[in-house]
Amino acid sequence: MRSPSSKKPSGAVDDLKGLLIAFLRKNHPEVCRHWFDEIEPLATEAGVMRLLVSEPVRRQYLERSCATQFTEAAQAVTGQLLAVQFVAEGVEGAIPERNLTGTVRVQVPQEFGDELLLSPDYTFDSFVVGPGNRLAHAAAVAVSGNPGRAYNPFFVHGGVGLGKTHLLQAICQAVIRRSPTTRVGYLSCQTFSELFLECVKSGRMQEFRHRFRTVDLLVIDDIHFLSKRDQTQEEFFHTFNALYQAGKQIVLSSDASPSEIPDLEVRLVSRFNCGLVTRVDRPCFETRVSILKSKAAMLNLAVPDEVPSYIASRIDSNIRDLEGALSKVRGYAMANSLSLSLDAAKAALSDDVPGPRTALNPSVQMIIDAVTRYYDVKLSDLLSKRRHKSVALPRQVCMWLARKHTRYSLEEIGGYFGGRDHTTVLHAVRTISTKRDADTELAGALDRIESIVARRSPVESL
Questions:
Q1: Which CATH code fits 285-348?
Q2: pTM of this structure
Q3: CA-to-CA distance for 319 and 323, rounded, in angstroms?
């Protein structure tokens, strides 16, 4: 526990916390969350300000996305050259050892380092329930309260941006909060497949099987990526059986129901259907309004009621598009020193049209030109099979922008990028959408590229 010398008078702590949060909300509102008020400053020693963060998922978010901003705030409010550490309850000095896998409470080899990080935004408290997701939400709550017994497996499916990932992460966080020693494995199907192939090639299948067959809760996002992968389907079948027979909870998400996933083995379809299969649908108007209000509260934004209503009347596609519209309105208001009013919302969204696509109407080639020049990559590399990060990220950004701003199908977009299939495009879209929420640098890059495409001005102006 903390030593007495590390404590500060409560008044001084409250004053320091207030100054830190005020600085962040003024200068870095994009990273701020309503729970920042629960962060407790501890002692400042040896040039390091320690900040107590009770929940591990929140601490990971801060370490990953907010360290630079908090350091800037600490230096600004104290006038000292300080670094910032986010520490757990009961830790007396250094940051507790981080799990390099990206999961929580699961110690695995560093090679398994591409798992998905949990977002503190994706909890049951922040999930807005409506007619289109009521059953899925109720089932997810039941699963988190009684893993392995309520509904096993739990399979949720629906379109992009409708809250499936939110429910999966909420289950993980609720289970961890209730039982911190629970072994949780949370990753995408794409990652599961890639790790499987890597371990086959390197002769590490025993290690792979031990890692995935000994968890208490296995959560796989986008399980439809098993399509056409016979070896991976075989391995997942045995992993599923091992966990199911041991009474361990399995949670899966997909863009289609089990019987509608192409080229999925009958035995897997049967096992996925043996639990609860539920669908999430597009939110109705009232739910869209509630989602926008919830998002604004999470970001500590004071938004008059007419703004969420206006945005919800114009955007009826999915939750990510709603959040994107709110972010656009906020950015427009900040850039023009305006309040978040109905007039600001109308001005910010004046070029948008209802539905999942914006009114930019660029060609795929325009998007490719902007992205290749922004990231300084060759078109031939973008269309090649290269998977290095320097090429893979721009390629995924292109696919994400093409999906957002054109009316091409996933298959048609894949055709522009070396004949890739629709599952690759869908993976790129979801990867960028997820990273955008956690990576402020990527979010800024996307905004700048989109603005260039919108204005159809030279990319050199970047």
A1: 1.10.8
A2: 0.66
A3: 6
